[in-house]
Structure formats: C-alpha cells, structure tokens
C-alpha cells in the first residue's frame, strides 16, 4: 500500500523530498495505531486468561462445597468471591441451572432470574465472553459442572465475572504516547535525510537533464560521472553509452559523407582533366581523341559502379527493406555463380574449384545472397596471383549451411582485417583502382549476411591467402527489430 502511494506521487511529479516524507507519515499513521491495538489486545488476552483460570478454580470450589445448595452457610466462599471481584475491579454473579441468581457481589440481582443468551450457552458447557469497549469492561460466562461436559444433567450453573480493563487501555495509551515521543525525533531525522536524499537525486537528475538539453543543441561530447544511488548510476551509464553510440554513428556518417564525396569527385576530376586536355589540343590526331575518350568512358563506368553500389547499400540499410525469401537450392545457386565468374578467372589465369558435400536447400533471398557470394568470389579472383586458385566449399548441418571461399592470393594484413567491412575501405588503393574496386563490396556482403541472420568471418595471412566463411540458418527467421 505504501509503495503504491509512493509510486502514485512519483507519477504526479511530486518532489522526492515530499514523497519520502509522505511515505514516512503514512507508515507512522498505520504502524502506531496497529502497535497500540496489538499491545492492548495482548494485555486484555492475558487478563482474560487469568480470569478464566480463577473461574475454573472457583467452579471446583463451588461444586466441592455444594455452594449452589447452601449459599447462606458458606460465608467464606462468598467473601472470597467478593475479594476477587474487588481485586479485578469487577463484579461476580453465580447463576444456577434454573437461571436464578443465587449470589451477587453487588447484591443487586440476588434471587432474580437472568435470561441471557451467554448464560444459556454457558449452561450448555460453552465458555462465553462479552467485551464492552465503551465502558472498558469484559464479562466472562464460565460453566459450573460437576460431571463431563457431554452430560447435560451434570451442569449446575454459571459464573458471570465482569471485570475492568481500564488499566490495559491506559498501558496501551502510554505506549502510544511513548511511540509518538520516539517518532518525533525520528521524523526530524527523516526530514533531514529526505532533504539530503532529495538534493542528491535532484542534483544528479538536473545534471542529466542539462546534458540532454545540451545534446539537443548538437553537443554530444559530454560524459556524465555520477556518484549516486545504483539506479541513477545505471541510468547515467546507459545515457553515456547512448552518447557514445550517437558519437559513433555521427562519426561514421561524417566519414561516409566524406568518403562518398571523395569517391564521386575523383572520377569527375579525371574526366575534367581529360576533357580540358582535349579542349587545349584542337588539332590533336584522332588516335589521341580515341585514347582520351576511352579514358573518359572508363571513368564514367567507374562513377556508375560507385553510384550503383551506393544505391544498393541504401536499400540494404533501410529498416523496412523487403526480404524476398524463398526455398532455394544453394548448390544450383553456386553453380550459376561459378559459371558467371569463370571467364574472369580464366582471364586472370586463376583456377576455380567448387566442392559440395551435400545437397542444401535453404530459405534465403536468392538475389541478395547471389550478390554477397559473388562479391567474395570475384574479390578472391581479382586479388589473387598469376596461376593461383579459388576454392568454394558448401556444407551444412541440421541448422545452418556454410559457404567457404578460399584463395592463395596476396592475403590481407592483420591490422586491416577488422576494417575491410567498412565502407570505402581498401587495403591497397592503387591495386583497387586497377581492378575497378569501389571499397563497398564487402560492406554490401556483410549487410546481406546480417539480413539473413547469418555470420561472416575472415581468416587471412599476408602473402599466403584468405578464407571468408559465411554461415546462414537453413530456415529464415524474421529479425524482430525489423519486424
């Protein structure tokens, strides 16, 4: 209940200070009366047990002395009852089986008939009680029986013992006052703690809020350090991680824009230089024109490849990009790719080797997967050496299929292996220019593999060769983030 009130005030945007104080007040308002009530009930229960024990002993004496039949002769037992009633500030009445009052310590009901549900129940051997909270009194109805309780003819009468519980109420009231006296300094301490607690949280939250406002203005270099409660530290750490991610994305975006600008500008610059050279040579022979126009055409083709790859990346980067998934024979797909790339390999004097260990059918986007594997095989051919080889191996298990593309080419330096999937990154820019590479092929390949919920890894040794391994589930499961 207290937690619900606390959360309610939190949602209502009441300060932490007021929330803490409110919770303390509610707890005090609930716990103090509960403590008083528990203490009072405990004291009254103990008093009732004492009185019940006295009634039990008195019942035996009444039966032993045949008091019900000889009330006037046993003045000693009468005095004992009066003394006991005085000690407990109460009143004791003896009623026989005919509901006649044969003894009353107040001498008010003697010889009168008492008709009461509690008396009748006591005559049936049931101990009863009645509690008067207004007058702070309790009445115990105790049966007088000389035989077993199951034998109705053995019931002789009822002891009605009315006694005061004012002292018990007074003791519990004093306890309540003592608790209040204790609560007051505790409340002051809570106020002090709540104030400190509020300021500490408010300071950290204000710092976080200012940083967020600062970030909205374009400043993403801030990092917050908070020595506060665990929850705030975790929140701050999550915010710092978000900032780091935003910085990384921003740096990647800026680098991408810079690289795109550079890559698109380079062919245009070459075309401009070649065109200016032709303009400055109006009388140049046709052979020179053909050579220059051939170079211009090659630069235009290079520009077109860059734009095509960029458009492909844009399609792959879209969160709502569609995957046209169907069950495809991976064996046939690789055979088609090998036939397409074979002329390029022959032109470079590179042997193409294809091995398939089993028939593999998988749920994939055929067009995208062909593009990804084609990039790997073409790179293995282009960046190979004279008389080299490229081996493509297909295998699968009960859950995944794997495609391994290996070569014995120039290899990739260890420091470059973590960067080759970055956009526009090229290990050897001069060699990439000769082969027509844009530096986007491996980035496209990785994006496609990830769209298939797959894994792409590379192992390479410079001068010895490279192996790319693609591992993709046989059954396509749509990515939840994209769903």
Q: How would you describe the overall organization of this protein?
A:
- A hairpin with a 3-residue loop joins β11 (455-461) and β12.
- It is elongated, with a radius of gyration of 49 Å.
- Helix content is 55%, strand content 17%.
- It has helices at residues 2-11, 16-64, 75-87, 117-123, 166-216, 230-279, 286-317, 330-347, 366-382, 429-435, 441-451; strands at 91-96, 101-104, 128-132, 137-145, 155-164, 325-329, 351-356, 361-365, 389-396, 400-407, 455-461, 465-473.
- 21% of the residues are buried.
- The chain folds into three domains: 2-171, PAS domain (Beta-Lactamase, 2-Layer Sandwich), CATH 3.30.450; 230-313, Helix Hairpins, CATH 1.10.287; 324-473, Histidine kinase-like ATPase, C-terminal domain (Heat Shock Protein 90, 2-Layer Sandwich).
Arithmetic mean of pLDDT: 78
- Summed up, the domain count is 3
Spatial separation of the terminal alpha carbons? 40 Å
CATH architecture of the largest domain: 2-Layer Sandwich
**CATH class identity of the largest domain:** Alpha Beta
What string, H for helix and E for strand, traces the elements in order?
A: HHHEEHEEEHHHEHEEHEEHHEE
Count the E strands. Answer: 12
Coarse shape? elongated
Low-confidence parts: 8-14, 148-154, 430-436
Major beta sheet summary: 5 strands, antiparallel
Please state how the strands of the largest beta sheet are arranged side by side. 2-1-5-4-3
CATH level 4 superfamily of the largest domain = PAS domain
